[in-house]
Amino acid sequence: MTSIDLNCDIGEDFGRYTLPNQKEILKYVTSANIACGFHAGDPSVMRETVKMAIEHGVKIGAHPGLPDLVGFGRREMAITYQEAYDMVVYQVGALQAFLAIEGEKMQHVKPHGALYNMAARDPEIAEAIAKAVYDISPDLILFGLASSELTKAGEKIGLTTAHEVFADRTYQMDGTLTSRNKPNALITDKDEAVQQVVRMIEEGKVKSRQGVDVHLRADTVCIHGDGEHAADFARYIKEELQKNGIAVKAFI
């Protein structure tokens, strides 16, 4: 039976600002990417999210981003190889401490937002992130955009690498995600999103905004946890995948 990991960016509250239905989302996903304080999240949110993920049996990963709370980590910054490396080590280490207290093991690392997109196309940033993850633990899984520079860097250094696809984002003909600054970057129709995901899983293809099929590998599907209807969408996509004969389970 075909299977897929369903992951969600989560723990992106900060201080008094909270996102709805975070606990509800964890009922439907198999992997959680927990914000580590740079783009969102704070120590208390990290601790609470770790506990919720463990309670629901969800695999836990670090979600390091650029140090940009105001821009939610979605604005690119000019950073060096060493800065990218250090940012990842620092943020993963913070989440690891909370996991150690709970006696839980970290499954993966997935960069967030602009850092993720930069690593998808910039070999130097990709190599810095992969090296940081490998140096922390070669047993960690690196999540990256399918067939991108980041997944290439992870595979080159010897990490288990999960090629990630997106349920609610459109694609360009080079395999990158359509920028959020452009029209039609997001897919808001849940049935259209499901159809895209099923095709990526079963056929390894996605229709780009230019109308050209792009070949990609789908190991894990991302659902964003900061949307107004995120929990409902998580439930819906899991149910529809199962109806299509696709089992939803953790990457390993």
UniProtKB/TrEMBL annotation:
GO terms for biological process: carbohydrate metabolic process. The keyword Nucleotide-binding applies. This is 5-oxoprolinase subunit A. It is an enzyme of class 3 (hydrolase). InterPro entries: Glyco_hydro/deAcase_b/a-brl, LamB/YcsF/PxpA-like. It catalyses: 5-oxo-L-proline + ATP + 2 H2O = L-glutamate + ADP + phosphate + H(+). NCBIfam families: PRK05406.1-2 (NF003813), PRK05406.1-3 (NF003814), PRK05406.1-5 (NF003816). CDD domains: LamB_YcsF_like. Its EC number is 3.5.2.9. It comes from the Bacteria. One of its GO terms (molecular function) is 5-oxoprolinase (ATP-hydrolyzing) activity. Belongs to the LamB/PxpA family. Keywords: ATP-binding, Hydrolase, Nucleotide-binding. Catalyzes the cleavage of 5-oxoproline to form L-glutamate coupled to the hydrolysis of ATP to ADP and inorganic phosphate. Forms a complex composed of PxpA, PxpB and PxpC.
